[in-house]
Write a structure and sequence with these properties.
Elements (H helix, E strand, L loop, with lengths): L18 E3 L1 H4 L6 H6 L4 H6 L9 E5 L6 E5 H8 L14 H11 L7 H8 L3 H8 L8 E3 L3
Antiparallel strand pairs: 1-4, 2-3
Helix pairs in contact: 6-7
This protein binds zinc ion (ZN).
Zinc ion binds next to helix 3.
Length: about 150
């Protein structure tokens, strides 16, 4: 499969650039979203799903912002509906990338700027921008418009 090449972004992300999880990023190469997601499951679901084969488990999901129907990974929806709602889900000891990823799981992946993220994960906004705003994309977190 050939993907159209995107024009190189002329504007670098700033503290006010909205970011989100690009689930499409996970579909490229041999990245395994489910393996990564499992590490964010609550203890209860980690036990329950330890032996489950969730590959290709897609469900219809209606985007709350656009009312567009999308095929979503059932594991993502389970996490949004349950695990992400557990107290302490956004762990204070996790890395910036993991903490930001968890924030987007708790808010249905609505775009947030590094300033917004800074408030939610209690880190410095500049540090967050340097981490997720560089050339390297971590766990699919990238500018929502790009
Ligand atoms: Zn759970």
């Amino acid at each position: 499969m050939t993907l159209p090449t995107k024009p190189i972004r002329s504007l670098r992300p700033t503290l006010d650039t909205p970011f989100h999880i690009d689930y499409g990023w996970w579909n490229k190469g041999d990245r395994d979203l489910r393996v990564y997601l499992r590490s964010h499951l609550c203890a209860q679901h980690r036990d329950q799903l330890a032996e489950a084969n969730l590959d290709g488990d897609l469900v219809d999901w209606i985007d709350p912002l656009t009312a567009e129907v999308k095929r979503m990974d059932a594991l993502v929806l389970l996490m949004q509906a349950h695990c992400a709602q557990q107290p302490g889900f956004i762990g204070e000891h996790s890395s910036i990338v993991d903490a930001a990823f968890r924030v987007f799981l708790t808010n249905d992946n609505q775009p947030l700027t590094p300033r917004d993220l800074a408030e939610r994960i209690d880190r410095d906004a500049e540090t967050i921008l340097r981490t997720i705003g560089g050339k390297q994309i971590y766990q699919g977190i990238r500018p929502a418009s790009g």
